[in-house]
Amino acid sequence: MKTLICAITLMLPVCAATEPREFKKDFVIYEATLNGKKITIFLSEAPFEPEKHKVTPSSVVGTGDNARAIWPMVDGHEAAGFRDTDVSIMKGISHLTRLAVSFDGKVVEAPKELIAHVFMPHTDTSFDSGRRNGMISISSDAKAVVVDLAVGDAAWSGHQAFTFSAAGTCILGIPIPPEP
Question: Is the pTM of this model over 0.85?
Fold first, then answer.
């Protein structure tokens, strides 16, 4: 019998089983055809192995009213989907091992160093007027895709965005729009 622990964080209901779960590999989180071009987004996750990454634990900078937390870092990026001060519990939790976009058959992979810091990625990109799990944005010419993944669990939830281009690049975040 599975025991479920449920909580609500940022209006997002999250349930985690206390038994081990199956990690997704090359899972298609989104597929569409725009202007005759097929866009497919793949995601893989695996248990996190901290010994394979440069992990910097959280710390506190400053004192009193000027104190602020510095969250754990993985391979130079702030951990997304994980906000615990005890880095030792990172071992074994789900983290992103692959994020790729296929532009009409041409696959563009996110570099490993850009995705290793993403924990507990949500594979559901649906949303309604009250919440969203993730969001996919495709340019009108189907040459750019923004994948904005919901991440985290009942302890902490957030998102991490990646922008892919059909030219073969992937960047962390969303490009800045032009200014007037």
Answer: no
